Amino acid sequence: MKSPEDHRPATTSYRAEHQRDVVNRLKRIEGQVRGLIDMVESGRSCEDVAQQMAAARKAMDKAFYRMMACSVMEAVTESASEDDALREVERSTRILEKYA
Predict the structure, then answer these.
(1) DSSP code of 81?
(2) With CB atoms counted within 10 Å of each terminal CB, which end of the chain scores lower, N or C?
(3) How far apart are CA 4 and CA 74, in angstroms?
(4) pLDDT the model gives residue 13
(5) What CA–CA distance (Å, rounded) separates 73 from 15?
(6) pTM of the model
(7) Cβ contacts of residue 100 below 8 Å, gap of 6+?
(8) Does residue 80 sit in helix, strand or coil?
(9) ∠ CA 20-21-26 to the nearest 5 degrees?
(10) What is the pLDDT of residue 2?
C-alpha cells in the first residue's frame, strides 16, 4: 500500500464531495420532518403520516450508509499497510453492526 500522503488529495476530494452529498440528504430529510409535523398538526390520517415517516426513516438509513461508505473508503485509502486497512475496515464493520 502507498503511504497516506500519496492518497490524501484524492481522499480529501472524495470526502468533500461525499460531505456535500450527505448534507444535501440531511437537508431533504429535515424538510421531510417539517412536513411530518405539519401533517400531524393539520390532522392528516395516521396512515398518511406513517407512510411519510417510513420514507424519512429510509432516507436517514441511506444517509447513514453513505457516511459509513466514506468511513470504509478512508480506511482503505489512508492505511499505510494492508493490515492497517483490514483493521480499519473491520472497525467500520463493527460500527455497522452496532448502529444498523
Answers:
(1) S
(2) C
(3) 10
(4) 78
(5) 9
(6) 0.74
(7) 64, 65
(8) coil
(9) 95
(10) 45
Q: Which three cell numbers stand for residue 83?
A: 493490515
Please, what are the averages of pLDDT over each run of 10 residues along the chain (100 residues)? 50 82 96 98 98 97 91 84 89 88
DSSP assigned state of 42: T
Each as own residue / partner, the long-range contacts of residues 7-16 (CB below 8 Å, 24 or more positions apart, any chain) are 7/77, 7/78, 8/78, 10/77, 11/73, 11/74, 11/77, 11/78, 14/70, 14/73, 14/77, 15/70, 15/74
What cell numbers appear for 66 in the block?
Answer: 453513505
Measure the CA–CA gap between 58 and 61, rounded to whole angstroms: 5
For residue 28 the three cell numbers come to 431533504
DSSP string, 51-75: HHHHHHHHHHHHHHHHHHHHHHHHH
pLDDT of residue 74: 84
Structural contact between residues 75 and 7, judged by C-beta atoms closer than 8 angstroms: no
Quote the pLDDT of residue 100. 79
Cell of 85: 486497512
